[in-house]
Design goal:
- The complex is a heterodimer of chains A (about 160) and B (about 290).
- The longest helix of chain A is centred in the last third of the chain and has 14 residues.
- Chain A is of the alpha+beta class and about 160 residues long.
- Chain A has a 5-stranded mixed sheet.
- In chain A, helix 3 packs across helix 6.
- Chain B has about 290 residues and is α+β, with helices and mostly antiparallel strands.
- Chain B contains 12 helices and 14 strands.
- Classes of the chains: A alpha+beta (about 160), B alpha+beta (about 290).
- Chains A and B meet through strand 4 and helix 5 of A and helix 2 and helix 6 of B.
């Protein structure tokens, strides 16, 4: 199989690697770079376990080809943890027990942070709408919504806790 | 499941893209946002030998206003349409529709033109194009041509695009400022493909409707417009017979070819369209 070279920025570092065109971004990150935080779930864009940031925007890593990363800037949970960008969110997840098996968690954290930094509307239904693209089979979602809401209040995005 | 192997090409302009497609023929597909094609490749429903990536063609991106139209480049991301102040001002129906379109991560990669070219019966942009009377601008071997929406969407995943054609842009007529519009979808979860859905527009003055137009989608092979039904529903609204709307819609759709799916029978979809029409009318009055 013929491979192609990809140069891109990964969690702040310039990197380069060889890949077959058919390899998607998540397999590439997990297998070549051993960044295992991002999960392979459904591989057709529905479950959200593969959510990462490319050029500052959340995307489905399973629906991007590794070769399409040429010239882009990629951020995974490893990078966000190292930079401390979501330390408050990770702490809130921990305190609220918003993670059980952890399979959805990296996607949930990245999608939640995207909502927190971009949202124009606040409240639990706004959080739910944004996180509708991330499935969780363990928690029933309430703890996750609670954790994100708690951070929204702490960051001054939302005024008060909602009851529902 | 993993994609089968393919050759990857990344043209830098439309001419190169078309030349690649002509060279490979049916063995190659254009890769736009990848939010529908990559699932198909990953599940091996599609095993194309070559993918021609359009993401490097800057000319295919962007939104501008020209002579009463919004010209939306085919590779413009769903999220760019949704967040555009120009679209919000000139074609607010598109912003309304974008709320129902999948999820944020998918909207960041999926493209307006990719969705139109795929023509999924439950897709939002084809229904919006039909309602707003959009034109599809197509680049082909013989040059450029425009196809109006009511001729472009021909069937389930079937459009007027030929084997060697590339959708370059979509021209959407600017909505009139006094017009009210709404998009309603019935789906089990936020962002799912709808079980039944409607887009509607009208001029509403003191509770009186004129120019009511409705498109029902996710109920048949293509989005569906019925001018006589528009007139009947408008008449019902303007004479205060709101309770008649459901039956008027169900009767009209009974004569059209609906398609059942995993979630709903034809009868259920007919019923849901009646509900949607009534709710859309209420929304237009409220706006």
């Amino acid at each position: 199989m013929s491979t192609m070279t990809v140069h891109f920025r990964l969690n702040g570092q310039e990197v380069q690697a060889q890949t077959e065109p058919r390899i998607h971004v998540i397999d590439f990150l997990r297998q070549h770079f051993e960044l295992s935080s991002t999960r392979v779930g459904c591989e057709h864009g529905v479950c959200g376990a593969c959510t990462i940031r490319v050029d500052g925007e959340i995307v489905r890593g399973c629906l991007m080809l590794a070769v399409q990363l040429q010239g882009t800037s990629v951020e995974t949970l490893e990078g966000l943890t190292d930079s401390g960008e979501i330390a408050d969110l990770q702490q809130a997840f921990h305190e609220r027990n918003a993670m059980q098996c952890g399979f959805c968690t990296s996607g949930m954290l990245i999608a939640s942070q995207d909502w927190l930094i971009k949202t124009q509307t606040c409240g639990r239904s706004a959080i739910r709408e944004h996180l509708s693209g991330n499935y969780c089979r363990c928690t029933g979602y309430e703890a996750i919504i609670d954790a994100v809401e708690r951070v929204a209040i702490a960051r001054g995005i939302q005024a008060t806790k909602e009851d529902v | 499941m993993k994609s089968s192997a393919f050759t990857y090409e990344r043209p830098t302009d439309v001419g190169q893209a078309l030349a690649s497609k002509v060279r490979w023929g049916a063995a190659a597909r254009f890769l736009a946002g990848g939010q529908s094609l990559m699932p198909a490749m990953n599940m091996r429903f599609n095993t194309s030998e070559c993918l021609i990536d359009l993401n490097g063609i800057a000319d295919l991106r962007g939104i501008r206003e020209e002579s009463g139209y919004l010209v939306i480049g085919a590779m413009t991301r769903h999220s760019d349409v949704a967040n555009s102040t120009l679209v919000r001002a000139k074609a607010p129906l598109l912003v309304q529709a974008s709320r129902h379109l999948a999820h944020a991560a998918i909207r960041n990669r999926g493209t307006f033109g990719g969705s139109v070219a795929l023509a999924d019966p439950a897709a939002e942009w084809p229904a919006a194009c039909l309602l707003l009377g959009a034109r599809m601008r197509i680049a082909g071997r013989a040059g450029m041509r425009d196809v109006p929406a009511d001729q472009f969407f021909m069937g389930h995943y079937m459009t007027a695009l030929g084997e060697d054609d590339l959708l370059q842009s979509v021209l959407v007529p600017v909505q009139q400022p006094q017009e009210s519009s709404c998009v309603l979808e019935l789906a089990r979860r936020q962002g799912d493909f709808a079980t039944a859905a409607i887009m509607a527009r009208a001029v509403v003055q003191k509770g009186v409707f004129s120019h009511l137009a409705m498109v029902f989608f996710a109920i048949s092979d293509t989005p569906m417009r019925d001018l006589q039904l528009d007139a009947k529903v408008q008449a019902a609204v303007n004479s205060g017979r709101f309770a008649d709307i459901d039956d008027v819609v169900k009767a009209a759709l009974g004569c059209r070819e609906l398609r059942s799916d995993l979630y709903a029978s034809v009868e259920a979809k007919q019923h849901l369209c009646g509900v949607l029409a009534r709710r859309a009318v209420a929304q237009l009055l409220e706006n």
